[in-house]
Structures are given as structure tokens and as C-alpha cells.
Write a structure and sequence with these properties.
- The chain is of the alpha+beta class.
- The chain is built from five helices and nine strands.
- The longest helix has 11 residues, at 3-13.
Length: 177
């Protein structure tokens, strides 16, 4: 852990100069500067005094926070192939089912489909990357082709089919897969 950098981030976040922090902790500005550049290490008591002046709990200070992943590549995807329905589902955001929406990459082979989904609360959105597909909503069928998108509330039985094959980015909220 980089204590000096973390102390500096806290100090700047609180809008204090090194001199102001030094005055509050009864330390020298030079000592604060050395701490922030990791040229020296504070005693436990000195660190606790600094953290108290910064309004930070020592336990929270040392708690390592995992940086959230923002960008995902093919190595992060989870894939499921269903030979019965001739489709492949790629979860393009890992663990997305814990979020309020779940984007997947759906590949329907010629004659492929998704399982009919029973009516439920939520919304579904899709963007057709290639091919054409049919969106079945209750007793109605809608067509979408490459470059088109679709959106519907999921309050009717619904599923997708493709006679010629299609690749779709499909987002479900809340997650239903």
C-alpha cells in the first residue's frame, strides 16, 4: 500500500494544504511532504493523529478497495451454446445479473431461436449487428434487420427467431438469464 499517496489524496480531498495539515497535527510541513512522497514512514500514533485530522478511520484507510472493471474484452465473456435452439449467448459484462441490466451478445444460427420467456416485469432492448430476426411478442411478430434496434416491455410471452441467422446485442432489465 502506498501510504504517502493515499494521505496526499485525503488531504487534497479535504481541501487542505500541507502547511494546514501540519498545523493541525503539530507536525512540520517538511515532514508531511516527506510522508506524501514516501521518503519517511509515520509511527502508528502519528498516522492516527493525521487520519483524525483528515476525518478518516484507520480501518477504512487500510481497507483495500478493488478497482471496478470498466472495460471488458472477449477474454472476460462467458459463453453458452445451445445446440437445440441453434444459438450462442455471450454475457459481455461478467456478473451483470447482479446489476439492473444485463447486456448479452446473442448469435442465432439460421433457424435458431431463444426459449420463449414468460411474461415478467422489466424491459428488453436489442440492436441487430448482422442478419435479420423476428421478435415474437404475445401473438404479434415484428421484424428487425442489421442496423435496427428494438425495445419492449416484457409483460407478454416473448422470444426471438431468425430464419437466416443474426447477431444481436440484447439488454434485459432486470436481468432474466
Amino acid at each position: 500500500m502506498d501510504i504517502g499517496t493515499k494521505l496526499k489524496e485525503l488531504r487534497v480531498l479535504k481541501g487542505l494544504t500541507q502547511e494546514e495539515l501540519a498545523d493541525r497535527t503539530e507536525l512540520s510541513k517538511g515532514f508531511i511532504s516527506q510522508l506524501e512522497r514516501n521518503l519517511t514512514s509515520p509511527s502508528i500514533q502519528t498516522l492516527m493523529d493525521i487520519l483524525q485530522c483528515l476525518g478518516e478511520d484507520i480501518g477504512e484507510f487500510f481497507r483495500q478497495s478493488q478497482e471496478e472493471q470498466i472495460v471488458f474484452g472477449k477474454n472476460d465473456y462467458f459463453e453458452k451454446y445451445d445446440p437445440e435452439l441453434s444459438n450462442t449467448i455471450q454475457w459481455i459484462i461478467p456478473n451483470a445479473q447482479k446489476n439492473t441490466m444485463e447486456p448479452i451478445l446473442l448469435t442465432l444460427k439460421a433457424g435458431g431461436s431463444t426459449y420463449p420467456d414468460t411474461p415478467h416485469e422489466g424491459e428488453e432492448f436489442g440492436y441487430v449487428l448482422s442478419g435479420t430476426l423476428s421478435i415474437h411478442l404475445g401473438s404479434k411478430v415484428y421484424r428487425a434487420k442489421k442496423g435496427e434496434s428494438f425495445y419492449y416491455t416484457a409483460d407478454k410471452q416473448h422470444y426471438l427467431t431468425s430464419k437466416t441467422g443474426a447477431v444481436v446485442i440484447w439488454v434485459s432489465s432486470p436481468p432474466s438469464f
